[in-house]
Amino acid sequence: MDKLIPTSWSDTTIEAINTAIPGWVQTHTTSQSPVVIADCSRAAGFTNAMLQSDGVHPNDQGDRFIADKIGPKLVQFIKDVGGAAGNSSATATVATTLRASTTSSS
């Protein structure tokens, strides 16, 4: 689950949703289906400078910020699942792909 990035005009609504996310996660996570939060919110450092001119969609800097927040959680999930199944090559491939996609945007 990802906390929402801000828009240039509606922080109140987005912050209300982001405030509700931890409670939702707590009530929906289970040991068989854990839910984790990647925080891409303004509180985590996302700024309006990371938005395209439409004020909604992330620009390259915003994409890198999101990838930095979500990528490690995704890689950890794949390691957990791949490790349980003994599939470390899939984990390495995904980790390499994520690193390449975030560095090629720099």
Structure description:
By secondary structure, this protein is mainly α. It has a two-stranded parallel sheet with strand order 1-2. α2 (60-85) packs antiparallel against α3 (88-104). The two termini are 25 Å apart. It has one domain: SGNH hydrolase (Rossmann fold), CATH 3.40.50.1110. It has three helices and two strands; from the N terminus they run βαβαα.
Question: Can you lay out the helices and strands and say which pair or pack?
Answer:
Elements: E1 2-3, H1 11-28, E2 38-39, H2 60-85, H3 88-104
Parallel strand pairs: 1-2
Structural features:
mainly alpha, 3 helices, 58% helix, flat
Number of helical elements: 3
The total count of strands amounts to 2
Q: What value does the Rg take, in angstroms?
A: 16 Å
- The CATH homologous superfamily is called SGNH hydrolase
Give the CATH level 1 class.
Alpha Beta
Helix proportion range: 55-70%
Q: In sequence order, what are the helices and strands, one letter per element?
A: EHEHH
Query: Unreliable stretches, pLDDT < 50, 5 or more residues?
Result: none
